[in-house]
């Protein structure tokens, strides 16, 4: 969140006399232009930021300046705490917990109950259901490697089932669509790749350090347009009945449903046709039918028959 970055920059400037814009850009993994926009926003908030020119120059705060609790409104603190709560549900760790307690500690005792109510009115929990121990272990390893700028090795199984050994320079952890990914420079392929955490096994942080490479975080491979650029997207028309209507509402929203007749609804959605789309349609269950396109109906029917054949009584297990 931008507010987290702005506050973090202010705290960092309070701790250091001055710091280079490039160092801030590298630290927060944004462009130098973004850092200068952040500095302008901090200045407009009334914090005296000074730019020092020449050798040994950089960005700093006016001498003697201290951060006052009064500069943060109750709404500011509430938004920061809610952002930290969301972060702690997915990444966790002692650093986030300590920062969360620091902000909660500056709330007066007489206002703590009201503050607790305000900060629990909206909760974002990125953690999955069930036992997440395996994923949390991988997250810890990857975070360690990114923090130390050390390479990490792991065994990777791609969507086609091919298994490879990888040695990568991890740059960024990405949470997208409730799935964790690692954006890393693969030393074997000599280019950046996006690795799905659930497909990684046996991660090991090595003793080999690396230098972070220049990245443009304005155009990245997890951006939806780039992820689907190489795959043709076409509209699928799915039919739901009253038993499966809730699935359509959960996935596509109530406004996407078109009632054809009593208890029968259709939804038209754009998807790239691939293994994920087939699996998604099958996961909706027997009360959902593909209406268009015709070749997709045939594909789903073929897959459903293959699944059914696995459960025939005379089939060997």
From TrEMBL:
Q: What species is given as this protein's source?
A: Paenibacillus kribbensis
Tell me which UniProt keywords the record has, alphabetically: Transcription, Transcription regulation
- Name the UniProt record assigns to this protein: Transcriptional regulator
Task: Name the Pfam families for this protein.
Answer: HTH_11, WCX, WYL
Q: Does the keyword Metal-binding feature in the UniProt annotation?
A: no
Every copy of the HTH deoR-type domain together lies at 2-57
Q: Does the keyword Plastid apply?
A: no
Please give the PROSITE patterns that the UniProt record associates with this protein.
HTH_DEOR_2, WYL
Q: Which residues form a coiled coil?
A: none
MF-aspect GO terms: DNA-binding transcription factor activity
Q: Which Gene3D superfamilies match?
A: Winged helix-like DNA-binding domain superfamily/Winged helix DNA-binding domain
């Amino acid at each position: 969140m931008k507010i987290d970055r702005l506050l973090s920059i202010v705290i960092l400037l309070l701790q250091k006399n001055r710091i280079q814009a490039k160092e801030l850009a590298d630290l927060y993994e944004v462009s130098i232009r973004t850092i200068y926009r952040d500095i302008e926003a901090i200045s407009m908030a009334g914090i005296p930021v000074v730019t020092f020119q020449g050798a040994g120059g950089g960005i700093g705060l006016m001498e003697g300046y201290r951060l006052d609790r009064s500069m943060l409104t109750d709404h500011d603190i509430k938004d920061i705490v809610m952002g930290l709560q969301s972060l702690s549900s997915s990444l966790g760790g002692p650093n986030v917990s300590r920062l969360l307690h620091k902000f909660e500690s500056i709330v007066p005792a007489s206002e703590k109950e009201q503050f607790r109510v305000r900060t629990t009115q909206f909760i974002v929990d990125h953690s999955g259901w069930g036992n997440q121990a395996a994923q949390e272990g991988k997250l810890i390893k990857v975070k360690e490697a990114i923090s130390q700028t050390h390479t990490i090795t792991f065994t990777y199984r791609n969507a086609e089932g091919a298994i490879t050994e990888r040695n990568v320079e991890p740059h960024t952890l990405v949470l997208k669509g409730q799935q964790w990914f690692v954006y890393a420079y693969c030393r074997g392929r000599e280019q950046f790749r996006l690795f799905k955490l659930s497909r990684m096994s046996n991660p090991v942080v090595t003793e080999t350090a690396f230098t972070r490479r220049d990245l443009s975080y304005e155009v990245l491979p997890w951006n939806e347009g780039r992820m689907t650029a190489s795959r043709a997207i076409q509209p699928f028309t799915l039919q739901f009945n009253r038993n499966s209507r809730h699935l359509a509402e959960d996935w596509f929203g109530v406004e996407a449903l078109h009632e054809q007749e009593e208890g029968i609804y259709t939804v038209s959605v754009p998807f790239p046709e691939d293994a994920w789309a087939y699996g998604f349609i099958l996961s909706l269950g027997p009360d959902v039918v593909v209406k268009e396109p015709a070749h997709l109906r045939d594909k789903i029917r073929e897959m459903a028959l293959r699944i059914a054949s696995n459960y025939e009584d005379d089939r060997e297990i």
